[in-house]
Amino acid sequence: xxxxxxxxxxxxxxxxxxxxxxxxxxxxxxxxxxxxxxxxxxxxxxxxxxxxxxxxxxxxxxxxxxxxxxxxxxxxxxxxxxxxxxxxxxxxxxxxxxxxxxxxxxxxxxxxxxxxxxxxxxxxxxxxxxxxxxxxxxxxxxxxxxxxxxxxxxxxxxxxxxxxxxxxxxxxxxxxxxxxxxxxxxxxxxxxxxxxxxxxxxxxxxxxxxxxxxxxxxxxxxxxxxxxxxxxxxxxxxxxxxxxxxxxxxxxxxxxxxxxxxxxxxxxxxxxxxxxxxxxxxxxxxxxxxxxxxxxxxxxxxxxxxxxxxxxxxxxxxxxxxxxxxxxxxxxxxxxxxxxxxxxxxxxxxxxxxxxxxxxxxxxxxxxxxxxxxxxxxxxxxxxxxxxxxxxxxxxxxxxxxxxxxxxxx
Length: 410
What we know:
This protein has about 400 residues and is an alpha/beta fold. Helix content is about 35%, strand content about 20%.
């Protein structure tokens, strides 16, 4: 009998498929395993039981922390995988308890967009029911890791596997290489029929954070990305893309390659992207007004701009040159007709600046004011009533600060 692998997605309101899950689903299904992807929802289900829905062949049974145990008992899954878990401590804690009660192995991690720091591992490994945490990207070894678990063999032979009581010099799996050999991510589990404004997520590169805090970048070939886009667009009847790279403009060949060619491969497509502005970067290197105008003509509709507070400060004072450059960048994006959203990193450096009221920089001033308001506002009790918030507050997802009344994404 074919073993069933259950992947659980903890984002209850996805606007596009989870790339971490999709890249792992593909090799598992290619290996002949049955993989079922389920989204955990906070919505209360109707009175009809999960068992009844399963018997009737319904694939849209709503699952939450109340009904998931009944579903697990009926599904006969052999293994649970949760690739994206870092910001969902309370949910993982409850799921792990259910897995322990049913004697189901549960593996956290392995996804391309999830990273767990060494000091955070005990929080997860000490949860009753967590079999192991995979630190790093498991694309090349996920089928072998699953086979090892199903055959009840020693998991510790696989780099990246961390278990309670296992002392390792290096925790993370080696950085992923040969990205051109990766299969296309499988998005067939996403509810395309109910998400009219859904997006197809795409990565043009991979970034691995090493234990010494250094980053290893692996870029994909421009042609490989351009060949993937029309295949996915036809497969899922969708022409809206979101590039999840933290800084799409880092690889200028990719940035300009998309602008120059994306409409030729997927006519009428629209896309979203994130760019990163380094402290000494010249706007003429792909971030000038003519480039933004060309990007808008090529289908770019929304731009996330990552700003680092460390590059805007020197000895606690605002750098006017940096602020002027930031202001010019945002102005260029607006003039090109793009919707803009600014993301600030190292935002704690912006607190308590004595000269903040004197700055003429609207963008930075609004970023700081928004951050300070968020820190003073009361936090939803449902999000903080867990050990996770008490033990590791700094692992909350990065805050996004709007600098404009953002309209619909695309």
